Amino acid sequence: MKVLLCGDGNGAHVFSCLAGHQEDIEVCIFSRYAPVRDKWTEVIKNGGVLKIACTNPDGSSSEFQGNPYLITDDAEQAMKDVGLIVFMNPAFTHNDYLTEIAPFIKPGTTLIALPGHAGLEYAARKILKEKRQDVNIIAFESLPWACKVSEIGTFGEVFGFKKLLAGGPLQLNTPKESTMEAVKALQHCLGKFPELKVTDFAFGIAMNAPNYVLHPSLMYGMWSGWTVNQLVQNLNSMPMPQS
Question: Could you tell me which of 86, 81, 79 has the C-alpha nearest to residue 110?
Fold first, then answer.
């Protein structure tokens, strides 16, 4: 199966490696960011192989190796013979990527976004127009891992796997069978973890995704050492907006 991966950041590096080491999967990277695209392409041309070191849920360690077979900014070339499209890029870039690949999307195509925060459904409605009725778009709540790439195209780390990742179709009329088949293919790309859970409809995923409103881990790091009195004193001293 050929998987088109839109994006070139931390998550895209990990996904391309985990999926790329599978014998029956070929990963093509569609990248709109020239500095990363050119560097990654250069690494592969020079014989380099992307390595991802993982800390597994049981505390053990493992390492995966794998390269995408192609990294390109040519949407038509990237979309040739695609079996699955994966968006693993920031939500603010969804419109740009979707606009470029839209002319080459065929009926029956599946697009899965990780994360697929609120707004992707509106982008699909605007950009794909009537074609969206024949495209299965599935949104998941976040990236599957906490990860970081230290060297483009060469080395990255997975610090932790999500245990469970929920997602669902963005259109109510999507046949459940096609959604389950697509999620099964994605699970094969990711491996055992995280376990992918399918919901009936992705609206709940959008409402339950807090990172674009607040980020709990950052808030914990900022406030966890404060006493109630310190918190109250600092809130009282903050300037209030003028009406």
Answer: 86
